[in-house]
Amino acid sequence: MKIRTKESFSDFLDSDLAWRKKELTNLRNNIRTAKAKSLPTSLRAGTVLLYAHWEGFIKNAAETYLIYVKFHKLRINELDKCFLALAVKQKINEFDSTSKSTKHIQFIDYILSPLDERAKINVENVIKTNSNLNFSTLKELLTTIGIDCTPFELKENLIDEKLLNYRNTIAHGQRLLVEKDEYDILHSEILNMIIEIKNQIQNAVTLDKFKK
């Protein structure tokens, strides 16, 4: 994936969100016009798909942001602290996984250096949701890329007890009946959070917030 400019990054986020919004809007319209007999099934399917887009968009956006930052090949001392942490973490993992004194000394030299070498940011297996994007996981994920999670703190119960709990119950084959009004609120709240996170990440790119 080649996301090298602010414009291409913005286009990617806009495109990824657009098809998800369209699908969710179509689904909600189908739910609103569903006959009584098919409504419970539509609501259950809608809840699972709503979670899928919640996790899918946020994971995609965060990973693409990491790829964008890595492409710029900044020096370690040019990075904001969250990306500095990712660069240093890789060195710590190398230190921890070996018993070689030469590697340990190299790590100490690295820590004591002016940190003006190119940062090596690993983008693989950094953004993890474990198919369980609850509030705690969301907070860690956003913190990893320097995005403020404060606006979503009041949504913890909505995310954990409603969206995630309902999705898990349905996905595990249990008979959970979702109320139509409840789904409508859940749909609006989750979509608004997706849009807010998208805007924050896009703003971080626009303002070069990944730089020190």
Question: How is this structure best summarized?
Answer:
The chain is 67% helix and 0% strand. By secondary structure, it is mostly helical.
Structure description:
There is one protein chain. With about 210 residues, this protein is mainly α. The protein has one domain. Helices cover about 65% and strands about 0% of the residues. The two termini are about 25 Å apart. About 25% of the residues are buried.
H/E element order: HHHHHHH
- Catalogue the unreliable spans: none
Q: What would you report as the Rg, rounded to the nearest angstrom?
A: 21 Å
- Number of helices, counting only DSSP H or I runs of 4 residues or more: 7
Task: Label this structure with key terms.
212 residues; mainly alpha
Strand-helix topology:
Elements: H1 6-33, H2 39-71, H3 81-96, H4 101-112, H5 135-144, H6 156-171, H7 180-206
Helix pairs in contact: 1-2, 1-7, 2-6, 2-7, 3-4
